[in-house]
Design goal:
This protein starts with a strand and ends with a strand. A hairpin with a 2-residue loop joins β18 and β19. The strands form 4 sheets. The chain has a 7-stranded mixed beta sheet with strand order 1-20-17-22-15-13-14, with no helix packed on it. Strands 2-3-4-11-6-9-12 form a 7-stranded antiparallel beta sheet, with no helix packed on it. It has a 4-stranded antiparallel beta sheet with strand order 5-10-7-8, with no helix packed on it. By secondary structure, it is mainly beta. The radius of gyration is 17 Å and the shape is globular. The protein is 0% helix and 54% strand.
Length: 240
């Protein structure tokens, strides 16, 4: 049975800590909404802005696939596996927290903000060996089409995770029509509009709106503005 969930941008949870302004599509930290715990295996979608020179001190994670998508600025990452890296727009970062990992994330620059998406996906394997990966993609490969940035397959395009999940990014001119085919039966798609406006399966969605669709085999999209950007996250709807 087809199911559609609409999360308007202004209905998200919000936390402003001064150095950090975060919007939560799903329950996180002090924001709790019993109707927004997760969308299938998609547990967290945080839209974060970090002030210059500030960031998240060292903190632990376990048994979660953690994906970071930088949108603006330079985000410095350090972790207990010995990685020290900087991620920028065009990069995709993934951590399999598994048996346990500690990391920190800081805005590398003192004079400009960092914007990034922090996404958590429930894994399909528990207590795996922790893992870190980071890749740089050609943003031109998502012009008027979908570019795969994540999958379950280490040999496929993008980063990989311990879950039957596929993520795509696309940047479209006005009135471009495209279709997304579900990769695995039973999966759903959470579409998050990064900027501009789209018609998603007949529903209009503006900047930072989220639309969750399940019980479908394919989804039709039309961009309704120039330089319209969208993130599609296909995930299993059943956990376990």
């Amino acid at each position: 049975m087809k199911n559609v969930i609409i999360h308007k941008a202004n209905s998200r949870g919000s936390a402003n800590h001064g150095w950090l302004h975060s919007f939560h599509s799903f329950s996180f930290a002090s924001y709790y909404n019993p109707e927004r715990i997760h969308f299938g295996a998609l547990r967290v979608l945080n839209d974060d802005t970090v002030s210059g020179g500030m960031g998240f001190g060292t903190h632990p994670h376990d048994n979660m696939e953690i994906i970071s998508i930088p949108l603006q600025g330079d985000l410095e990452h350090k972790d207990s596996m010995g990685n020290t890296t900087v991620i920028r727009n065009g990069d995709i970062q993934v951590m399999s927290a598994g048996t346990g990992i500690q990391h920190s994330e800081y805005n590398k620059n003192k004079d400009e903000i960092v914007k990034f998406l922090q996404i958590w996906v429930f894994p399909n394997k528990q207590n795996v060996t922790p893992r870190y990966d980071q890749i740089t993609l050609d943003v031109n490969d998502r012009h008027n089409k979908l570019q795969q940035i994540l999958s379950p397959n280490p040999d496929d395009a993008g980063v990989w995770v311990h879950q039957d999940a596929w993520f795509h990014l696309g940047n479209f001119e006005n009135e471009k029509q495209f279709e997304y085919q579900i990769k695995k039966a039973g999966n759903g798609v959470y579409a998050f509009v990064l900027k501009g406006k789209f018609l998603i399966d007949g529903v209009e969605a503006d900047t930072r709106d989220g639309i969750g669709l399940s019980g479908v085999d394919k989804i039709d999209f039309t961009s309704l503005s120039n330089d319209a950007e969208i993130l599609l996250m296909e995930v299993p709807m059943q956990l376990g």
